[in-house]
Amino acid sequence: MGRSLRFALIGAGLALASPAHADFSSCMANLRSHALAQGISAQTFDASTAGIEPDMKIIELMENQPEFKTPIWDYLGTLVDDEKVAEGKAMLKKYASTLAAAEQRFGVDRHTILAVWGVESDFGKSGGKWHLMQSLPTVICFGKRRNDYFRGEFIAALKIIQRGDLAPEKMRGSWAGAFGHTQFMPSTYLRLSVDGDGDGRNDLVDSVADALHSTANYLAKAGWQTGASWGYEVRVPENYAGPSGRTNKQPLSNWAGRGIVKFDGGALTGGGQAALLLPAGRDGPGFIVFKNYDAAYSYNGADSYALAISLLSDRLKGKPGVQGEWPTDDLPLAREQRRELQRLLTARGYDVGEPDGAIGAKTRAAIKDIEAKLGLPQTGRPGSKVLSALKGA
Fold first, then answer.
1. Given this model, what pLDDT does residue 7 score?
2. Alpha helices in the chain (DSSP H)
3. Is residue 17 over pLDDT 70?
4. Which of 373, 371, 372 is CA-nearest to residue 387?
5. Residue 21 has what pLDDT?
């Protein structure tokens, strides 16, 4: 099974060698009773959870979600860079017939479907390492919030196993339980997954067609309007002091009356109510967003995420990315630049693991240390300043 799933020693009381294990054992017994009351068979529960132990690293990850803690320019820097766009365009060709079928079936444009896939799992390359039968019980038994929610997701995961869609070992994903090519939560999987390849099963792990069709179904159910725009970048008057925020919907005439125009200076266009988004505050880029942006937002519940989906879909269509300037003098690094930074840190003797562009704890610690040595503020952030300083040194 992988490193993240450590099997307990069963028998002779060895599995309950600590108070934490004892608490976990008691919690699992309660979960078993709850699952059986929800229609899960004893055989399904016991076979799916045999020998699991909690992994407290998951609890740490609960408090460090990048969508909410990473500066928006860093978040978009790796998710909507040239490398991602090139990969996406290759996938547009490779899965052209599958995307066309999903687009026709659900009315969601193929570029947005593909953008979700690219942001969620880098087109299937990084779906997550956590075994759901370990991560969800850990969160339920030791997490400090949303326990009822995660309990429901755990039961939903067991139902997926019980109805035969997936074997337990196939269910690996994020610490929170999202899994598959486009990272569905188990309850969403039960509600909205569909068969896209015609084999009679809903398999979002090994079937790209099922995953893409299910993603289109999700967005359609979230209110996607066929043929409509998610929005576009705008210019906001200097010293703008008016309203903003995704939920503050107003007629376009109201926004135009406040002096807001498209980034190229043209008049605002589009139908229906719209909102003004200022993800980096009034000194950063602005966007007018419509209902399709809300559909993307519903997938993850963060503006940074919805913007990544929306901007990546535009770039896959050949449109430019963000044209306004972010309010920072330390610009974000694209993935190849992050790999270069990691290689330079490795050359200086730091252990940052494989230079893959993913910034983890080791890389951040190395950046912070080298910043101190180079006379820079210690941020631990992979920005252009530390990269330039390292290259110059």
1. 32
2. 19-37, 42-49, 57-62, 66-69, 72-79, 82-94, 96-106, 110-121, 132-142, 147-162, 186-192, 208-221, 252-257, 291-297, 303-316, 335-347, 361-373, 384-392
3. no
4. 371
5. 53
CA–CA separation, 57 and 3 (whole Å): 13
pTM for the whole structure: 0.87
Token pair for residue 201? 């099963």
Task: Extract the tokens encoding 240.
Answer: 């703008």
Per-residue pLDDT for 57 more than 90?
Answer: no
Q: Tell me if residue 287 falls in helix, strand or coil.
A: strand
Residues 186-200 have pLDDT tens digits of 999 999 999 999 999
What is the secondary structure of 106-136 as a DSSP string?
Answer: H---HHHHHHHHHHHHTTTT----EEHHHHH
For 222, what's the count of Cα atoms within 13 Å in the CB-facing half-sphere?
20
Report how far Cα 388 is from the mean position of its chain's Cα atoms: 29
Q: Which residues does 262 contact at the CB level (< 8 Å), separation at least 6?
A: 232, 233, 234, 235, 268, 269
Of 296, 311, 303, the residue nearest 276 (C-alpha) = 303
The residue among 264, 289, 292, 290 whose CA lies nearest residue 279 is 289
Residue pLDDT, tens place only, 71-128: 899 989 889 999 999 999 999 999 999 999 999 999 999 999 999 999 999 999 988 8
Cite the beta strand spans of the chain per DSSP E.
130-131, 172-173, 231-235, 261-262, 275-277, 286-289
Contact status, residue 24 vs residue 96, Cβ threshold 8 Å: no
What pLDDT is recorded for position 303? 94
**332 close to 384: Cβ distance less than 8 angstroms:** yes
Strands 130-131 and 172-173: antiparallel
User: Residues 286-316: pLDDT tens digits?
Assistant: 999 999 999 999 998 899 999 999 999 999 9
Tokens 């252990």 identify what position?
A: 351
Q: How far apart are the C-alpha atoms of 106 and 113, rounded to whole Å?
A: 11
Distance (Å, rounded) from C-alpha 113 to C-alpha 42? Answer: 38
